[in-house]
Prior knowledge:
This protein is of the alpha/beta class. It is 35% helix and 26% strand. The protein has helices at 5-8, 11-23, 32-45, 102-119, 139-145, 148-151, 205-223, 264-283, 302-316, 334-340, 372-386; strands at 48-51, 58-64, 69-75, 124-131, 156-167, 171-172, 176-179, 181-190, 194-195, 230-239, 246-247, 250-259, 286-295, 298-300, 321-322, 343-351. The strands form four sheets. Strands 1-2-4-3-5-16-6-15 form an eight-stranded mixed β-sheet, with helices on both faces. A four-stranded antiparallel β-sheet has the order 10-12-8-13, with helices on one face. The longest helix has 20 residues, at 264-283. 49% of the residues are buried. The protein binds nickel (II) ion. Nickel (II) ion is lined by residues 100, 102, 134, 161.
Amino acid sequence: MANIQKIEQIQDEMTQWRRDLHAHPEIAFEETRTADFVARKLAEFGLEVHRGLAKTGVVGTLTSGDGPSIGLRADMDALPIAEQTGVAHSSTNAGKMHACGHDGHTAMLLGAAKYLAATKDFKGTVRFIFQPAEELEGGGRVMVEEGLFDKFPVDSVYGMHNMPDMPVGTMSVRGGAGMASAASFEIKVIGKGGHAAAPHEGIDPIVAAAAIVGALQTIASRSVNPTEGIVVSITQFHAGENALNAIPDHAILRGTARSFAADAETSVPAMIRRVAEGTAAAHGVRIEFSYLHRYPVLINAEGPSDIAFAVGEEVVGAGKMDGIYPRIMASEDFAFMLNARPGAFVRLGSGFEGRESPMLHSPQFDFNDKALPIGASFWARLVETVLAK
Ligand code: NI
């Protein structure tokens, strides 16, 4: 493994930053303390700092002569989860925690900025993009819509996510589709309430909604090419709040759909609507359907993925760089940046050695600080490669 020596020397400092951020988690578009922290560090390192894109976004610019430009992106937000790690740097904001390692992503990109600002062993411009609201709200989309790449042009853009199911000291990237699109939807099932002892005089929305839940599972198993991959999950089922002996007049189903189909924005809601309406008709109820396409499929460009692979091999060593990059049904709003500029999304191993590594979004998750110099070294070498003198 060949971390950059000068970055290894700031490992303790990066760890301090990371744990400070971990202790003060902020969720979507509320990352004011985090943005203050990031902006202050970038200014200390001598970067030009811009704030306010997507409310709390921060962009640092570092230029060294004329040359191409590259964007490096880290996400800053935490999750509405109550922390259960028991570590000394646990969340001090009740009900919020860095359960996805974005504290580590932010610290690694700051570490790379500190090193690159001091060494400037490149020719061109680096944009350090710190985005809010990756989870749930699509802060990456908002930054792009508010003109991120018009105000801060880049020729390519890269992102990184830690993966606790990959051992620390490994990385992975490959061209092509890597993460699914995501949508949320709601189906209101409208029947006719009445006495629970006389169901034939009403129209029971609960039995109909239960049938819809089951029928929706035929989309993945019977309607979509099994090699393409789709997930339709009902995650909320609400019905009846009043008397135990009353049939309610409606039920509400909510859920999420994930797909790799290029036309997911139109094909997936059409399938859900067809199944829900058909099943509703069979039960004599009607439905109201709403669908929100949230994140597109994440697609790594071939050229940038090859560059990232080669740089990763330099940092973690040949054989520790995984070129398989299995597709996952989770989604990621860096996909909006990759739709705007060619680039790649790299996976960074963050699994602990010799002990269990809680999964992302678990209340037991804590970022593995051993990954900090690896991620920061990758960023620095990527800049020195793409913007080589
Ligand atoms: Ni994440």
